[in-house]
Amino acid sequence: MVKKVVLLSGSPRPNGNTAQVIEECAKVIRGSGVETEVFSLVGRKIESCTACYQCRELGCCVINDGLNELIELLRDADGFIVASPVYFGTARGDVMAALQRVGLVSMVTDNFLRWMVGGPIAIARRGGHTATIQEMLMFFLINEMIVPGSNYWNMVFGHEPGGVWNDTEGIATIRLFAENVAELVQKLD
User: Fold this and answer.
1) What is the model's pLDDT at position 1?
2) Number of compact structural domains in the chain
3) In sequence order, what are the residues at sequence separation of 6 or more whose Cβ sits closer than 8 angstroms to the Cβ of residue 27?
């Protein structure tokens, strides 16, 4: 059976640092023999969850803003990685809105996130990485997901597009995390 990891790029910029880091992560995972698909928030207006619980009956979110595409991808995935730029010390609002809605749909339907492998990545100019990783990590833990580590926290420094490539330690950390996700996905059945 072919294994697959879905990667969420939470940047509004199609070629920004977050998009570049998530593509590098996908490349490493593909190199390990695992399929990948990147879902980008570029051009999407993701709304916040209203806790209407209509997803319980529908099996998907009632809000029609494209997030159900991600939910369907995740139902067939073995892994999920989320990368967000840091805005004012936290993840972008629409990244958290997406995670909250995906999490609720999973919890009230078929728990498709349970035992999925993955984790968060934070990209910032100067700071806020740790708080952003912690904020996103809550999504993984409450959904009974498996989060492998790396040799440091999954954070990369960079401001101008392409600046992340100057943070060689950060890129190496992300590559190792991607390898660990791919290896664990392949070990779990």
Assistant:
1) 84
2) 1
3) none
**pLDDT tens, 11-35?**
999 999 999 999 999 999 999 999 9
What 103-109 contacts at long range (C-beta under 8 Å, 24+ apart), as own/partner pairs, is 103/139, 103/142, 103/143, 104/49, 104/51, 104/53, 104/55, 104/61, 105/55, 105/59, 105/60, 105/61, 105/71, 106/74, 106/143, 107/143, 108/53, 108/55, 108/56, 109/55, 109/56, 109/59
pTM over 0.90: yes
Neighbour count for residue 70 (Cβ, 10 Å): 24
From the list 155, 64, 159, 74, the residue with the least C-alpha distance to 112 is 74
d(CA 169, CA 7): 21
The rounded distance, in Å, linking the Cα atoms of 188 and 1 is 11
- With CA atoms as reference, report the closest residue to 123 among 6, 25, 5: 25
Judged by DSSP in three states, 20 sits in helix
pLDDT at 52 over 80: yes
Whether 78 contacts 185, CB under 8 Å: yes
The alpha helices in 32-159, defined as continuous H runs, are 55-58, 67-75, 93-108, 129-142
What pLDDT is stored for residue 189 in this prediction? 75
Domain extent at residue 29: 4-187
CATH number at residue 91: 3.40.50.360
